[in-house]
Write a structure and sequence with these properties.
Layout (H helix, E strand, L loop, with lengths): L1 H22 E8 L4 E8 L4 E5 L3 E9 L2 E13 L8 H11 L6 E12 L2 E10 L2 E14 L2 E11 L9 E2 L4 E17 L2
Antiparallel strand pairs: 1-4, 1-11, 2-3, 2-11, 4-5, 5-6, 6-7, 7-8, 8-9, 9-11, 10-11
């Protein structure tokens, strides 16, 4: 009888471990093509936006049941020259200021995310023009099926990344130092 009880308890422990590992899992996600990143700013002439839908990224997300519970790791990378304003001269000035010949990518690496429901606070590092700086900003999460959409924005300055704000027309048009990096990142389970 003792041997039978011993085996029953072992089977129950294994069953609990199996069930709990199915409920609480780390799932690999990748950035969907519909994701968008935008950099916005101003100048003495007009406001401007540069947008890209060419970012790549992946992460290990913690999913409990079908609900988002956290992120173990996340990295998003964007080739800087995929950012477009619709004006070739503005784009070329921006690429020159970003020194895209040497520093091709804009990268965000998540260090921590806290919060619950649909409101979170993200902390991580932005690398722009070869300079890495910490960033902290609010993020809104929406879940649709297996996809997770994160939306947010981060206000910073070009000079924080050792970028001289570009000028044009012999210095008569000056770009503001302040910029906003905004994003709508849609992550889908990796196949």
């Amino acid at each position: 009888m003792k041997q039978y009880s011993f085996w029953i308890s072992r089977i129950m422990v294994l069953a609990l471990v199996f069930v709990s590992s199915q409920v609480f899992a780390q799932v690999k996600y990748t950035l969907a093509p519909a994701s968008e990143m935008k950099i916005s700013g101003g100048s003495t002439l007009h406001d401007w936006d540069m947008t890209s839908t060419s970012a790549k990224g992946d992460g290990q997300f913690v999913i409990e049941g079908n609900q988002f519970k956290g992120i173990k790791s996340l990295r998003v990378q964007l080739e800087a020259e995929t950012l477009k304003s619709g004006t070739r001269g503005l784009d070329n000035n921006a690429y020159k200021a970003l020194d895209t010949k040497k520093h091709k990518d804009v990268v965000f690496t998540l260090k921590e995310i806290t919060g619950s429901g649909s409101s979170y606070q993200a902390k991580g590092d932005f690398t722009i023009s070869g300079v890495t700086k910490p960033a902290s900003f609010p993020v809104k999460l929406t879940q649709s099926g297996g996809n997770l959409t994160f939306e947010g924005s981060f206000d910073t300055k070009l000079t924080n990344f050792s970028i001289d704000p570009p000028t044009a027309l012999l210095g008569t048009v000056k770009t503001d130092d302040e910029i906003t990096i905004s994003f709508k990142s849609i992550f889908q389970p990796s196949k």
